[in-house]
Structure formats: C-alpha cells, structure tokens
Amino acid sequence: MTITKKVSDSTVETIHIVRPNHLNAASRLFGGMLMQWLDEVAGVVAQRHTRSNVITASVDNLRFIHGVYKGEMVVIKGKVTFVGTTSMEVKVDTYVENLSDGSHHKINTAYFTMVALGEDDKPAKVPRLELETDEERKEWAAAERRREIRMLRKAEKF
C-alpha cells in the first residue's frame, strides 16, 4: 500500500520575537539565526510528512530581502511542495508581522531539500503527496523545474 499525505498534513508555522541576543553588529536579525529557524521549520515539516528522521541535503534561493529589527515578530511558514523517492522539497516563507494590523510583509523565501532516513540511517522512501489545489499543483511544477536545475548543477559540479 502506498502512503499518501496532503500538503496540509505537514504544514508548520512558527513565530519568533527578535530579541537583543538575535542581533548582529548592525542591530538587525543575524542571518545565521534566521537560517537556523528556517532549517528547524523545514525539518519539522519533513518529519511530519515522513514520520521519520530527516536531514537537510541542500538549501536553494536563500535571499535576505529585508532586515528585521529588535522587537519585531518573525512568522515562518513551511510546507512540502514536491516529493521524490527519498527526498522532498520544503518551501519556507518568512514574514515580519505588523503589530498594528497583523499584516505580513515577506522578507525571505527558501527551498530546502530534505532526505528521509530509515532506522539504519540510510535514505528511506517518503509518502507520496496528494495535491488538492491549483496552487499546490503550480508549486509542484515549479519544484520539478528547481529539481532539474539542482541535478544539472550537480552534474556540472557547480
């Protein structure tokens, strides 16, 4: 029997308040701190999807679009966008929440390739992904293209 999961089965949202210990010398959120938070969200999404241990194989398109400052709320949302045999792509979007009206301003998008591990610590099969919406199908198609690019880069040792 093939196990299938929906995108909504493993979606994760976390919130962090930027504190003084999260700041760099320019008084903005330290990029390494944000990267840690993103990796944690991607890992939880992948663990929820696979119900197994996972590792981060790669991160694509990690761009810092806007700075984040002390006291601001960082909202991080992750979801599975594509699955292969033993790996999956997890999209992680980062926002700053406006305290006055609750709106979100996007500051980052990153794509993580996560690999499921079996009890022997070797790659294990992941559940298939049931796509329910047009948006999920568009995400899948874009993820397939990113995967092709990753494979080309790997082949070219780039």
Automatic annotation (TrEMBL):
<comment type="similarity">
    <text>Belongs to the acyl coenzyme A hydrolase family.</text>
</comment>
<keyword id="KW-0378">Hydrolase</keyword>
<dbReference type="InterPro" id="IPR029069">
    <property type="entry name" value="HotDog_dom_sf"/>
</dbReference>
<dbReference type="InterPro" id="IPR040170">
    <property type="entry name" value="Cytosol_ACT"/>
</dbReference>
<feature type="domain" description="HotDog ACOT-type">
    <location>
        <begin position="8"/>
        <end position="120"/>
    </location>
</feature>
<dbReference type="InterPro" id="IPR006683">
    <property type="entry name" value="Thioestr_dom"/>
</dbReference>
<dbReference type="Pfam" id="PF03061">
    <property type="entry name" value="4HBT"/>
</dbReference>
<protein>
    <submittedName>
        <fullName>Acyl-CoA thioesterase</fullName>
    </submittedName>
</protein>
<dbReference type="InterPro" id="IPR033120">
    <property type="entry name" value="HOTDOG_ACOT"/>
</dbReference>
